[in-house]
C-alpha cells in the first residue's frame, strides 16, 4: 500500500510541475494562433490554449499506454494553425468563420490520428528520416520566432516580422522591455535553480515588469483596449460553458467545400503531432527502459485532440519539455498526465481574472526562446563530412519550403528527398559482396588428393557470387555487369542469396535472361539460401517460383546452403573428369585401394590390415560424440561421414566437414591423444576400417617402419587440408 501511495504522491508532484511548464506555453500558443485573426481574439486564444491543456491532459493519458507522457498544446500545432489563420485572413474570410475553421481543423486532425493508429501507421511514422524531422522542427521554430517578433516589439497586428524589425518607429518599448526580461529570465533561470520551471519564472518576471511599468504609467492599469496584455477571458465555469456551446451552435454555417479544403492541412498537422508525440515517447522509453505502444498512443492522442476541439481548445501532442519535467519531479504512471489536466482546469477557474493581465510581450518572449531551442543547431556538423552533405541539404530545403511556403509543402518535399537519398544510397552500394573462382572455394566435403587436383585444374568451370542488399531496378545494371563476363566461359554460375534484403520484378527478369543464355550453352544457374523471408515478408523461393525463374528447366538448381551448391558442382566436375556414371554401383574399398596407401606394396600392409577392425554403420548412426576419447582413427571404405560442431542456435549442430569414400577422419585427436571436439555421424550406410590406439602402439613396437610411414602419410594429408583451407581464407578476404 505504501508503494502505491508513493506512486500517487510522485504523480501529483510530477503533474503539478508539468502543468507549470505546459500551461504558460499553451496560453502563448493559443494567443499566437487567435491573435492572427485580430487583437480582440487574443483572449479567446488564451482560453483555447487552457482548454486544450485541460482536455488533452484528461483524455490522452487516460487512454494512452505511455507512463509519464504529458500531452498539451505544442509548437507544431501553433505554427500550422497560425499560418492557416493568416491565410484565411488574407482571403477575406470572416473572423467567426475562421474560429470555426480552426475548431474543425483540430477535430479532423484528431480523427486522422485515430485512423492512423487503427491502420498501424504508428509503427512507421518513427521511421521518417532524421533530416526530414530536423528540417520540420527547425522550420517550425523559425515560423514561431517570425510570428512572435511583431508581438515582442508591440507593432500593429498583420505586420510582417522583417518589416517590424526595420520599422523602429512602430515599436512599443514597453512590450519589447517586458519580452526581453521574460526571455532573459527564462534563459538564465536553469543556471540558478531547477526547482521552479524556467517558463514560470520568465512569465512571473514579465508580469512583474509590466506592473513595474504601470507604476509610472497609469494607463497600463486599464484592461479595456489594452494591447499590451491578453485581455479578459471570462474565467468562470458559466462563461467557459458558453464559449464551448456557442461555437458549436455556429458549426452548421461551415460549408462542405470548406471542410474539404481542410483535409490537406489536417493530414499534415496530424502527421506533425504524431511525430512530435512518438519522438517524445521514444526518448521516454530510453530514459525509463520501457516500451510504448505507438498505435495505441496515436489513437489516444487523436481522441484527445477530438475532445480538445469539441471543448473549443487547440490541438496538441506529447510535449518533450513538460514530459521530462514530470519525470524529474517524480511522475511514474499515466495518472501524472491526468493530474496535469485537472490542475490546468483548476488554474483556469481560479486564476482566470489574473490571466487577463499577462503581457503579450511576455508570452512572445517565452515562445521566441522555445522557437530558438527547436532549431537543430547540431545539424551544422553534417557540413563537416562530404558523406553527410546531402543530408544537410535536405534539412535546408525542408526548412526553406516550410518558412517560405508552408509546412504542408515541406512535408511532401521532405518525403520526396528522403526517397531520393534512399535510392542514391542503394545505387552507391555494391550488390556483389564477394566473387570467387571455383578453384579457390571448396565445399565442406573433404576430397582425396587426386580429386582436389582435378577441382583445382577445372575450377574455371564455376564461379560463385555472394550477393547482398537490394536487387531492384536501380542495381540491375550493376548485377548484369558482374555476370556478363562469366556467361561465355562458365558452366556453373552459383548465386548465394543469403544476404539479399529485397528483390523486385526487374531483377527477376534479368535473372531469367541470364538463365536463358546459360541454357543455350548447356550451362547451369545455381541458387543457394533462397528459402529465407525478406524484411518485407516476402519469401524469395516462393517469389522465384511464382515468376517461373526456378521452375520449368533442369538447368536451374536450388540448394539450401552455399556449401551444398558447391558440393553439387564439385560432384559434376569430378564425374566428368573421372568418366564415372553417377549411377554406377559403389563397392567397399580394401586397404590397398585407399589413397593413403596407394604407393605401398600389398605385402607391406598385411600387418596393418591385421591391426584394423571392420565396422559397419547405418545411416544417422553416431561414430563418436563430443567429449569422447580420441583413441581411434577411421578409414572410410564406403559411404560418408558428417562432422558437426555443437551449436546452441543450429539444430543438430553446425556442419563443419564431410568425409567420403577413400578418406580418413579423426586424425588430429588420434595423433594428439586428446578428446573429441565434434560429433561424427554416418550420412548413409557406411563401412569403416578402425585403428585403435592400443593396436597402433603394438604396431609401433613390432613394425616401427610401418608405424612411421602411417604417421607420415597422415601428416601429409592433414597438411594438404590446411593448405586448401588457407587458400580459401585468402580468397574470401579478397
UniProtKB/TrEMBL annotation:
Domain (STAS): residue spans on this chain: 463-569
Domain Cyclic nucleotide-binding: 596-699
Alphabetical UniProt keywords: Membrane, Transmembrane, Transmembrane helix
Domain of life: Bacteria
Main location: membrane
Topological category with respect to the lipid bilayer: Multi-pass membrane protein
Regions that span the bilayer: 12-35, 41-62, 69-86, 98-118, 130-150, 170-188, 195-213, 342-372, 392-423
Pfam families named among the record's database cross-references: cNMP_binding (PF00027), STAS (PF01740), Sulfate_transp (PF00916)
Keyword Transmembrane helix tagged: yes
Record localization: Membrane
Keyword DNA damage recorded: no
PANTHER family tied to this protein: SULFATE TRANSPORTER YBAR-RELATED
Protein name per Swiss-Prot or TrEMBL: Cyclic nucleotide-binding domain-containing protein
Organism: Candidatus Accumulibacter contiguus
